[in-house]
Design a protein that fits this description.
It is elongated and about 160 Å long. It is mostly helical. α7 runs parallel beside α8. It has a three-stranded antiparallel sheet with strand order 5-7-8, with no helix packed on it. A three-stranded antiparallel sheet has the order 6-9-10, covered by helices on one side. It has a two-stranded antiparallel sheet with strand order 1-2. A hairpin with a 6-residue loop joins β3 (185-187) and β4. The protein has helices spanning 37-52, 79-88, 108-112, 120-125, 135-172, 197-215, 218-225, 256-281, 303-310; strands at 115-116, 133-134, 185-187, 194-196, 288-289, 297-300, 320-321, 333-334, 350-353, 360-362.
């Protein structure tokens, strides 16, 4: 099928072999859904030839084999009579013309209920369609789609027109400034607005001033970084009157530099004081808890009394010595981590490991006791003789 009539405009030549029949299968003429239009036309022509060849035997329409019982006014004996009989019995011919048909009138609703095949591509695009669908459903879907496309097309045209008008207005505006001025700007992180660079410089100046006030002046920082001892610390003198390394501690620092200056002086002062204590008292001047922080002892005038007191947790206390060993006979013991006589254990008192089920020993040192080791009696597990 090649279109050759070009009076109404250019036509695209399309072969009838490429046009597909999408109607229902027609067994009476051997036409199937999906056949080419060429095959459909050929089949129809074959049937038309049979009809035109007459009703004789071997070909044509066999009148005697057609059931005419439902037709009024028959029977017909020729093709012409049969065609006229069918026309007379058509529903729309009832009450009109010369026919004698019967039944209800054929109206628009009957036409809308007729079915047509629907292309697979259209069914994919429109989920409301089935194959086949009624003419009414197909027309409704086509009209709705047309309305939707028309609305979209109008909106697109209006949008394009607005864009075109904006472009025309932009082209009418003069480009550039008559006397352009180059200005440096920065983006403010809080408001995300572009501000003149002068605002940034002002903020930097304010921030620098605040930082200088908090950190301290350049002189304060240089003084802090240049601290060097000139002589040993005079530990015997008060902090606010010492000379040399610490002329005077700043009591109320007003900047980070002054605070660090004071902290460094105090740290060095404390370290030096500890070193002096170690020199004066030896390495053993630093005391440790006897055994560990979870070990406690109870005191009593006798072994039995100390054992009894150890059964009550409120009577248990820490003991301290230089080695940290339990009842170490080689070193003195104290009730506080200070190696001073006022904290040393009482002479000849007994101490029992809490809760009274472990080691016991008698302290032999103390203010009136022995001045040389051993400072403890031999350790016992049970009390013998009191």
């Amino acid at each position: 099928m090649l279109p050759i009539n070009k009076k109404n405009g250019p036509c695209d030549p399309i072969s009838s072999n490429c046009v597909i029949w999408q109607g229902p299968d027609l067994d009476c003429v051997d036409i199937c859904y999906g056949d080419s239009i060429s095959a459909v036309i050929a089949a129809l022509c074959d049937e038309l030839l049979i009809v035109q060849s007459g009703s004789g035997s071997g070909a044509g329409l066999l009148i005697n084999q057609i059931n005419q019982t439902s037709l009024i006014g028959g029977p017909a004996t020729t093709e012409t009579e049969l065609i006229q009989l069918i026309i007379n019995n058509m529903p729309y011919n009832s009450g009109n013309g010369s026919g004698s048909g019967h039944g209800k009138l054929w109206d628009c609703e009957d036409t809308l209920q007729c079915t047509l095949g629907v292309p697979e591509c259209y069914m994919t695009a429109n989920g409301n369609m089935t194959n086949p669908s009624t003419i009414g459903t197909i027309l409704t879907e086509l009209m709705l789609e047309h309305c939707s496309q028309t609305t979209q097309r109008i909106a697109i045209v209006e949008s394009l027109q607005d864009t075109n008008n904006q472009l025309i207005d932009i082209k009418k505006k003069p480009t550039g400034e008559p006397n352009p001025v180059l200005q440096s700007v920065y983006v403010d992180k809080n408001s995300t607005r572009e501000l003149p660079i002068a605002s940034l410089v002002n903020k930097i100046e304010v921030a620098y001033g605040k930082t200088a006030d908090n950190v301290g002046t350049e002189e304060d920082v240089n003084s802090l970084l240049s601290i060097t001892p000139s002589n040993p610390l005079p530990l015997a003198s008060p902090l606010d009157s010492r000379t040399g390394f610490v002329p005077r501690i700043i009591e109320n620092p007003t900047s980070i530099a002054q605070a660090l200056d004071t902290a460094m002086r105090l740290i060095v002062d404390l370290r030096t004081a500890v070193e002096k204590l170690q020199i004066d008292n030896g390495a053993g001047g630093i005391l440790s808890r006897m055994v560990n922080i979870n070990t406690f002892y109870a005191v009593g005038p006798s072994c039995v009394a100390a054992t009894t007191n150890a059964t009550t947790s409120t009577n248990c206390v820490d003991l301290w010595n230089e080695s940290g060993l339990q009842f170490d006979q080689a070193v003195r013991a104290y009730t506080a981590p200070v190696a001073e006589s006022s904290y040393e254990l009482a002479t000849n008192t007994w101490y029992a490991l809490c809760p009274g089920t472990g080691a016991r020993a008698q302290y032999l040192g103390g203010p009136t006791g022995t001045s040389v080791a051993p400072f403890w009696s031999a350790t016992v597990e049970t009390c013998v003789g009191g």
